[in-house]
Amino acid sequence: KMSWLWFYLPLHLLMAACLCHSIKAPTSSSQQSFKSDLFNFYHSLILADGKETTIHLLKDIPKRYYFVLEEGRALAPFTVTVTPCDVPIEWSILAHKASASFLGKAAQGDHNTQEVSKSQKATSTVSTIFNYKGNSVETYMGMSSHSALYMLEFLSTERDTHITVYLTTDTTSGHLYPELPLDPRIDVIGIGHTTVTLTWKHSPSVLQHRENIQYCLLVNEKHNYKSLCAAETAIRSSGMKLPPTLALSLSPYLLEPQQVMILSNGEMSIINKVSSGEVRQICMGTKNTYTVPNLSPSTQYYFDVFVVNLLTNASAAYTGTFARTLEEPEPKVMELKDGKVIQVVLDGKKQKFYSLQYQARHKKVQFTFQLCRGQVRVHITKNGKTVASENILGLRYLSLKGKLLDTYLVQLRSTEESNSSVKVQVSSHFNKPLFPLLPESLKIKSFSKLRTCNSVTIAWLGTQEQSKYCVYKKRIEEDQVWMELRGTDMCSGPESRHKSEKVLCKYFYDINLQRAVTTETIKGLDAGTLYLFDVYLIGPSGIPVRYHSKVVKTRKKC
């Protein structure tokens, strides 16, 4: 069995000697097991002085770190700061101290192992000098002696996690962590429908080292974070990578696809798109008042401010706060005028109804809806009773019967998170439709066998009504196909296209719908190249209807 005499060897010799012994691994964090496990350095680590250490913890498995003072450092102050990066943890500091008489025996070279062993209980003590359980950043400050060996034990009982630990015995060379003011609260001084204004007291570190310190703000809809480490862990667990720190992660080259960076007036922002909403990070230099823009009305947000040391990446967290933005005023009901076409853009994020009202001038009325983008649901009531409720697909006509001066309320909303758009018209003149007569299908067909290296042949259906058809082409890359097809505005006309993209315009119709088909061969194309083809149908009133875009690739070799 190893003698307590080993305790008094210099640290570097102690470590080397302990590595040569095979002693049973620690099984408990109690004071009694601490005595028997004290020298199990091969199953634990020496905690570095003056350096922040990241420690990974496995659930229900304690991890131990040791530290002692260098020789000649009697009664020196030391601090230990532990930052949980996820779930609450338990951690404690245990100290083994030997009496002066026992120290004297060791110094005189008394190697009587039996005598030393008998006097251990009388000449040495083991005590727990600090214990904590939680997920807050906690700092212990104490006085260390060369006749004491310290053990730090960490335990996570919820799940695997990681923490950071900072030990220092040098209190004269400044602070690794930026200092917080005596009052570290964040004050909410203004709330609007889409903005919240915050202010906080300056960190003493900002006043002393302005060029190396900055404030960073974290905004989210879930909860406050007690450390920057915890915030970054939460964002990563939502399914995305996050650069190591707020202060040094604001390079566009480090951004992930789920991140958007915004640079404005010297401020740097990163918006992280995660499953639970968006987490916004803003670093604003040394300003201690900030108005957070572009928030959603009637939504509760949580705000955390971190003061960050740009040289060390270390940070300290102010006490987080929260605020709820004001409710958006109820939208006014817009009057629909007979025969007039309006286009409505619907905010998918708010998921609110857009209301239109119409008072009938005849017993019969016809509502026309043309879906431009996204997905839209329409709900129509007549004098307070529901008469129609459905999703809009393409061009939809709804003919309703009632009485003169009946009041119709049309409510529209987007059924997806992105913005949607729809054109709406109401008319009592059924014989004067503004929207063109549509064919059975708005699909464009291409003929694979007729493709060459420099030409493509396409076909589309027409109607029994004389109409104008315009064909446009656009060269695209492979990675642009999805965005081009998804971002198509079905209500936009040829006026939205560049003149160089126009291929031709022509008129045609056929009384026999079986023969109302036309083809067109587009020449002068490049070999092995993707092209996006669009056809616009323009009726007598001039309102365009866009066919579904078609992507075709010319042959590479002919």
For the record, the CATH architecture of the largest domain stands as: Sandwich
Strand content: 35-45%
* Low-pLDDT ranges: 1-30, 38-43, 100-111, 115-122, 240-266
What is the distance, rounded to the nearest whole angstrom, between the alpha carbons of the first and last residues? Answer: 87 Å
* Number of E strands: 36
Number of domains: 4
Q: How many helices in DSSP terms?
A: 7
Question: What fold name stands as the CATH topology of the largest domain?
Answer: Immunoglobulin-like
| Largest sheet report | 7 strands, antiparallel
- Taken from the alpha-carbon principal axes, the silhouette is elongated
- Mean residue pLDDT: 80
The level-1 CATH class of the largest domain: Mainly Beta
Helix content: under 10%
| Structural category | mainly beta
CATH superfamily of the largest domain: Immunoglobulins
Q: Rg, please?
A: 36 Å
In a few lines, what is going on in this structure?
With 558 residues, the chain is mainly beta. The longest helix has 11 residues, at 113-123. The termini are far apart.
Describe the structure.
Residues 1-30, 38-43, 100-111, 115-122 and 240-266 have low confidence and may be disordered. This protein has 558 residues and is mainly beta. The termini are far apart. The chain folds into 4 domains: 43-98 and 125-173, Jelly Rolls, CATH 2.60.120; 176-241 and 278-329, Immunoglobulin-like (Sandwich), CATH 2.60.40.10; 333-427, Jelly Rolls, CATH 2.60.120; 444-553, Sandwich (Immunoglobulin-like). Helices cover 10% and strands 43% of the residues. Strand 14 (267-274) and strand 15 form a beta hairpin. It has 7 helices and 36 strands. The strands form 8 sheets. Strands 12, 13, 14, 15, 17, 18 and 19 form a 7-stranded antiparallel sheet that branches. GO terms for molecular function: heparin binding.
